[in-house]
Every structure is written in structure tokens, then in C-alpha cells.
Amino acid sequence: MAKAEYILSIIKSHYNNEPERFTTHALQIAAHEAKLGHSSLANDIKTIIDNAKDVKLKTKTFTTPELQGLIVENVPAVSLADMIASADIKEKIGRIISEFVQRDKLRKYDLENRRKILLSGPPGTGKTLTASIIAHELDLPLYTILMDKMVTKFMGETSAKLRQVFDLIEQKKGIYLFDEFDAIGGERSRDNDVGEMRRVLNSFLQFIERDNSDSLIIAITNNKALLDQALFRRFDDVILYHLPDRKEKLALLKNRLSRFSTKVNFAQLLPNINGLSHAEISLACLDAIKETVLNEKQQMNNQIILKAIKDRNAAYHK
Description:
Blueprint: H1 3-15, H2 19-35, H3 39-56, E1 60-61, E2 71-74, H4 87-101, H5 103-107, E3 116-120, H6 127-137, E4 142-146, H7 147-153, H8 158-171, E5 175-179, H9 182-185, H10 195-210, E6 216-221, E7 237-240, H11 246-257, H12 278-294, H13 302-316
Parallel strand pairs: 3-6, 3-7, 4-5, 5-6
Antiparallel strand pairs: 1-2, 2-4
């Protein structure tokens, strides 16, 4: 795309009140400048966008009185291009987005798009981020159902609350994320299970099987081995997440630190970040950036980054 077209597109999206499209065009400009070798300008644009995301991603309590405090609504501003993950995971996310966008084409052949998705993997590997990306790419609100609060606050009424949630899913199109899904999805045959939780799980299985809405339902778990096997056939797709491999670690370090660390040898840092998740590596990078800025160092070095990595390792993996 020529520079004039970039400018026209971004001006048009601003005056048409299309913030998501505006962000997309801004990221395209950053990518274009990066290809031209203007890395400083590209990083400045991305920083402005990242700062705007921090404000935009602030959650608000869902206003439905019956579900007050149990659902929060987000308007994410993070795209699939921003995600650092394996090609397989990004391909599966892209497939979910593509099928939703072209769902009318599928329906002409009596086919349904993937709408009920289970995400499984260690904490910090991108499961919640995936829901945000899908919501942003499809320009839909993200509604997070706080399952742990629902279970503890409304023990004895959880099935009734679930019915209200699925009524909402039917009435209001969006991305519905069942957070802490392990709270209700545990194996029904476990000896320590209680009768109420078995009833809640049975209710969920019935509700999700009957659901024919236009919304997308996403459930996340840190360990799919804990889930009842009856759940899996209710989901259209299961995506398994993992700790970052060497390529992903390198990409994370470069993506988060490139503005501050032109002389850092990233490859030398890799052996020290075994066991850290994507989120933990990002936090370590943020710690190193803060250390550099607050101590007014001109350039970050391996020693600063290594200290931040070791601190995170000590905090999460004692």
C-alpha cells in the first residue's frame, strides 16, 4: 500500500469513529516503516498503541442486574498479528475467525462454524489473550464469566445463574469466556465431588449442547486432564497451549526489548528462561525496561535482563 493510501485510510477510520480499524491501519504503518528500516519510528507507533490498549482494556462490570459482579465486559484492542505463539496455534485461531466471518457461506451447505472452543494449557501461555484476539478481530465485545465467583457466591443457585448466562449468550452476540472453567468442569466420578457440582456440570453440558446462538463460547482450563470427558464432544475445537519454545522465546525478547536493547545478545539469554511462560517472559522484559529507564542507562545490557529473568524465575518457580 502506498503512503498516501495509508494516510487516507487512517484519517477515514478516525472520522468514521472506527477505533479498531484505526488501530489496524496504525499497525500497518508501523510494519511498513519497520520494513524500510525505520525501527525507531515503528517502535514509537507501537508504544503509543500499547499505551492506548492499557486504557481501553480496563474492564467494566456487566450491567445485567441478575449477573452483577459475575460478568465483566472488555473491548480488546489486540490483533492476531501481535500474538507470539506456534504456527499451529495461530492457524487454529485464524480458522475460528475465518469460519465466523464466512458462516453464512457454510450454512448454505448445512455446515456450522466453530463456535464452542476449549483452550487448555499452563498459565500465562496465551489462552485469555486468544479470547481477546478473537473478540478484536471479529469486532465483538468480550464477556468474561467469572466461574469461581459464581460457584462460591451462589452455591445452590449456580445452575440457575448458568441458565441466565446462556439466555444472555442467545440474546446478545459476543465472545463469552468461561474463566476458571475447572471450577465446574471437573470429572463427575471423583470421590471428593459434591452433588451440587455434579448438577452444575450436568446443567452446563445441557446448555452448551442446546446452544444455537451466533455467539462464540470459549472455556479455558490449565489442565484438561481434570475435566470431565463428556465435555470434549460438546466443543467444536480444542486448542492446546504450551510453554514457549526457543523460537518463541527469542521472538518475545526481541519484540518486547528491541527499542531498548540494540546491543543485547538475545541468544545468550535463552538457557536462563527455561520454564517461564509467555506472560512471565513479558513481565521480565518489562522489569528490565523499568530498570533501564529509572537508572537512566543509555542502553540495556544482558546483565540487566538476566537479573530480571532470575527474579521472575525465583518468584514463580521456587
